[in-house]
Design goal:
Layout: E1 2-6, H1 10-23, E2 28-32, H2 35-43, E3 50-54, H3 62-72, E4 78-82, H4 88-93, E5 98-101, H5 106-119, E6 125-129, E7 135-139, E8 143-149, E9 152-157, E10 162-166, H6 169-175, E11 180-184, E12 187-190, E13 194-197, E14 201-204, E15 209-211, H7 217-237
Parallel strand pairs: 1-2, 1-3, 3-4, 4-5
Antiparallel strand pairs: 6-7, 8-9, 8-12, 9-10, 11-12, 13-14, 14-15
Helix pairs in contact: 2-3
């Protein structure tokens, strides 16, 4: 999971980063000391699962930054950080996931991550035993796609890394959520990472074009239609 933290007070920014390193080291953390740089990064395509924004910042305040981000990437949950509770009502008016008074504690961080997991209830943990005997823990939505060959599969993750392990395609498909679609004999794609879906192929968010299996075109289109419908239904229920 990738998390962004934006705070113009460097000591607070460093304290937040250290808190994550100590309490939730499995998360990838990007830090920003000004709102304009973070906004530019998101406009350039940076994707985040969660953002922590200080409210009082120069140039763009946390509230203003949140409103700008919502125009580009409305799906990103936002947590506001502040020294005062005077902005609480305004924070929830922009649909903030949480509102935390500084300094953030370990218990507040855990509560925040729990809220995130509840909000994104379709996320599932899967446990995979690699060929080296190491147990890996993933969120399903950290996997972009899976390539398989005989008795081995390779997971391609959102952080750019890949892991090869001994498991058949049918075994891994049974471990993943409904957003994963088998598009060809050796390839399973996470529908969350499909940018364009066509009649015979799709384009992933990383730019890769994936050709569909000809004999399974109907099943692939049906699976993607069901995924889209489930997303629309979930969005309506969250309003």
């Amino acid at each position: 999971m990738r998390i962004g933290i934006c705070d113009d007070i460097i000591t607070d920014l460093n304290a937040m980063e250290k808190l994550f390193q100590r309490s939730a080291p499995e998360y990838r953390i990007d830090t920003y000391s000004d709102s304009i740089t973070l906004l530019s990064a998101i406009k350039a395509g940076a994707e985040y699962d969660l953002l922590f924004l200080d409210i009082i910042m120069p140039m763009l305040s946390g509230m203003e930054l949140a409103r700008e981000i919502s125009k580009i990437a409305p799906e990103i949950p936002i947590v506001f950080l502040t020294d005062s509770d005077a902005y609480a009502v305004e924070a929830f008016a922009v649909k903030a996931l949480h509102y935390i008074l500084k300094p953030m504690t370990e218990s507040a961080l855990k509560e925040c991550l729990l809220r995130l997991n509840e909000k994104q209830g379709t996320r599932r943990r899967i446990y995979i035993l690699s060929s080296s005997g190491t147990q890996h823990l993933f969120f399903a939505n950290e996997i972009q796609y899976v390539e398989s060959d005989a008795h081995y599969c390779i997971l391609f993750l959102t952080d750019g890394t890949s892991i090869k392990f001994r498991m058949t395609q049918s075994e891994i498909l049974g471990s993943l959520g409904d957003s994963f679609i088998q598009v060809s004999r050796g390839l399973i794609v996470n529908a969350d990472f499909i940018r364009q879906f066509g009649s015979k192929s799709c384009i992933l968010k990383n730019g890769r074009e994936v050709l569909f299996s000809r004999k399974n075109l109907d099943a692939i289109h049906t699976a993607y239609a069901e995924y889209v419908f489930s997303q629309l239904s979930q969005n309506k229920s969250n309003r």
